[in-house]
Amino acid sequence: MSERKILILGGTGEGMALATALAARPDCHVISSLAGRVANPKLPPGEVRIGGFGGPLGLADYLRANGIAAIIDATHPFARRMGWNAAEAAVQAGVKLLRFARPAWVPQSGDRWIEVDDWDGAVAVLQQDAKRVFLALGRQELAPFTVLKDIAFVIRSVEAPDAGLAFAQAEVVLARGPFKFEDEHALLQSRAIDHLVCKNSGGSATDGKLQAARELGITVVMQRRPARPDVPQVSNIDAALAWVQSL
Q1: Which of 8, 161, 182, 229 could be stapled to 87 by a disulfide with Cβ–Cβ 3.0 to 4.6 Å?
Q2: Residue range 155-178: average pLDDT?
């Protein structure tokens, strides 16, 4: 079988695992594309490119110019623009597309979730009765919460927030997952957190905070996943590998 070029739109654990598996196969040439939002990303095996494509037209041009046989969209569930760009580019270039996404979290017995569509909705929820809030968000999404001057925040992020963000009360915790339940429980309890704010990212690497919130009776303000294009989708690596095998 001749070598096929597979473009993985990555930046997630799923993308890393898939690139690792495909890079070991002699019939695949793997190219992982990372957005470049993290200064020192962990690089997957195989070829890596960092940065955008210039929208769906730029991505379609890249697919044609590089002889890409298929795209696997393994971007974060909230990378909404990239998902739509990939779907449009795949059609334009006549390339097959697969969405590889971790399952969303669903509330369990004992959970106290309030689901919102955006961070303005989350701010409205916190204004009601929140006192000490844990923000488990990327640094680019913190600005809407700076209007809440009477709330003490604990902010966890991979990289330090922008210095210009004017939080009245904030502790910054720099860390990268996965996070153990025991550590999450200790963090939330030691800071007397009453509300936790996060996205419905899904997966097991960061769900320890939800388990801890459940046990501690903490309210979780959860942003719903955005709409994604209707394309073939799998949620585990074996199914993704089977799809590649079928090309």
Answers
A1: 229
A2: 88
Which residue in 220, 227, 229 sits closest to 78, CA to CA? Answer: 227
203/205 Cα distance (integer angstroms): 6
> SS3 of 34, please?
strand
Q: Is 90 exposed, middle or buried (0-12, 13-18, 19+ CB in 10 A)?
A: buried
The pLDDT tens digits of the residues spanning 16-31 come to: 999 999 999 999 999 9
CATH topology of domain 113-223: Rossmann fold (3.40.50)
Q: What is the mean pLDDT of the chain?
A: 93
User: Which residues of the chain are in CATH 3.40.50.720 domains?
Assistant: 4-103+227-245, 113-223
Nearest Cα to Cα of residue 221 among 196, 201, 202: 196
